[in-house]
Amino acid sequence: MRSGDAVPRTGCEARGVNVNRMRPDPSATGSGRPLRVLLTTDWWEPVVNGVVASVQTLRRELLALGCDVRVLTLSQGIRTRNEDGVYRLGSVSASMVYDRARIGMPSGRRALRDILRWSPDVVHSQAEFSTFVWARRIARTLAVPLVHTYHTIYEDYTHYYSPSRTMGRKVVESFSRRVLSRTDAVIVPTTKVARLLAGYGVHRPLHVIPTGLDLDRFRPAGSEEEHADARALRAALGIGPRQRVLLSVSRLAKEKNLDEVLELISVADRADTVLVLVGEGPYRAELEARAQALGIADRVRFTGVVAPADIPRWYRMGDVFVGASLSETQGLTFIEAMASGLPLLCRRDPSLASVVVEGVTGWQFEGPAQFTARLNALLDDPRGRTQMAHAALEHARATCGAQEFGRSVLGVYQQARERRAPLLLGREAVPA
């Protein structure tokens, strides 16, 4: 990160920042019309992951702020189509590289012509591969800013493409530097990622803006109906009313480090606990075998695929949220758990420093002994756990709202447009 680069903070990293300064008028395009924003992403529904959640939240908030927003993404098949402002480019499967990944096909000229006629004022890319090529081409053709959100710490995924972690990191470093050099601004969810990119030699304005959360959707069980639903979920998994649920919501992939969670559960040896792994993925068979080998298979439940709309229900049936992943850029599931009133127990990671307030919203641990001690403290002190759950909920409400996320990203757009002001003024003199 260069000296002097703007790094506005908001959401979970806000500390005394006046967010009101970052509220540009979305109609301030010089022509009186709403700001047109094109979001590009390789990942979109029906896929469920952090990138999809982030982009969907951003789209909703930008629309609420009065922007005109469209999305360019990949179809689940070879046909290109446009539905409700979402352009889906034909693509083919790349699951041999990464589960459910897809590669865009060199088609979609009609979609490109339509987007160019619409003429976005800002292009905001959310992925570094297929749709980034389109994002760069559109931004360059229209001479508008290209903003990019760097969602993934790829060096934690080297096992997918390189037998050597050192070599894999060098590939990631070079690739990231090359891709980001073509952007006007880069958004990252945490200071950890900003420092990582600075270490890669990325010299673009870096803005730390954590993804906001829809706090109306993620909340503790309140009504009797919601409590009954939580009890029904437990019963369906064969979990008794006196057992405590340790919850993890995650794609079942190697980089999520769920092997370590299983080992920690085994070492803690709490017969009154059940670990519920919410999600599906290519590593499930290995995890099931590992649970069996550790002798804890009777205390581990795999839910399989869960519809995105049902995820809040699963948070509400938990007692403690656990995780050991070190591949998170922000840890959205930890924030969702916190907003659902769950104390956190997670492996120490700088990306979670603003989420886990030690002894208040939860604990970060290092090693099995510390995990066991923290878990025992949580489970053997129901009153303390209730207080921590309440504190987690309040912390999420105070720091991780979606509205601040949308306003702050809009502020980045405004800064990027101002840096390109001469080009933009010349472009807006031409009738749309």
Automatic annotation (TrEMBL):
It holds the Pfam family Glycos_transf_1. InterPro entries: Glyco_trans_1 (IPR001296), Glyco_trans_4-like_N (IPR028098), Glycosyltransferase_grp1 (IPR050194). Keywords: Glycosyltransferase, Transferase. Signal peptide: none annotated. Gene3D superfamilies: Glycogen Phosphorylase B. Residues 232-392 form the Glycosyl transferase family domain. The keyword Cell cycle does not apply. Residues 48-217 form the Glycosyltransferase subfamily 4-like N-terminal domain. It comes from the Bacteria. CDD domains: GT4_UGDG-like. One of its GO terms (molecular function) is hexosyltransferase activity. GO terms for biological process: carbohydrate derivative biosynthetic process. The keyword Oxidoreductase does not apply. This is D-inositol 3-phosphate glycosyltransferase. It comes from Brachybacterium vulturis.
